Amino acid sequence: MSPRKKVAVLISGRGSNMMSLISAAMSPSYPAEIGLVVSNKPDAAGLTKAADLGIKTAVVDHRDYKGDREAFEHALNGLLKDNAIELVALAGFMRLLTPFLVNEWRDRMINIHPALLPSFKGLNTHERALDEGVKLHGATVHFVSAEMDDGPIIMQGAVPVLEGDTPETLGARVLGVEHQIYPKALELVANGKAKVKGQKVSTTGSDASGSDALIAP
Question: Which PANTHER family does the UniProt entry name for this protein (predicted)?
């Protein structure tokens, strides 16, 4: 069995998706281990959750860099390298990244977005989906590129939009899908079964069975 990839999870808040990754990585057969959780906010609730599970945590407070985004990212990048991180998973990390960090971690940094990209990039995705009257909504895991909520798509999961849905009820169903697909997508990346080819991701040996949502691949 190949060595497990060492992953850093970057958060800004409660760490809901972080916990789904940590839970999956508790299995010895999972191809990734969560070696570090980093937040740009010292009071992020996810830091406490990770520390309580014995996972190393760190803070790189963006406010210490007085708006210099690249200086902030150089500090963050140094921390990742000092901890021998191999893959980065963004999980509610509310900072726009510059080309510097994106290029440093090209094809090794992934993100989860609460919409079926390329639709509804940015914020307030559930409100916008309801306003547009779409019948399916969901979540996307993708490799990070220099453009916000862009980059080659690894995995998507969809749920139906129901009559009477509010942003809160729809968001809760989408969050359930996020917790399913993020560990699956990280697994594909960590074991080398998800490879970037041009602007697309080629996957081999993926299995999204056993879900009550529409998940692909």
Answer: PHOSPHORIBOSYLGLYCINAMIDE FORMYLTRANSFERASE
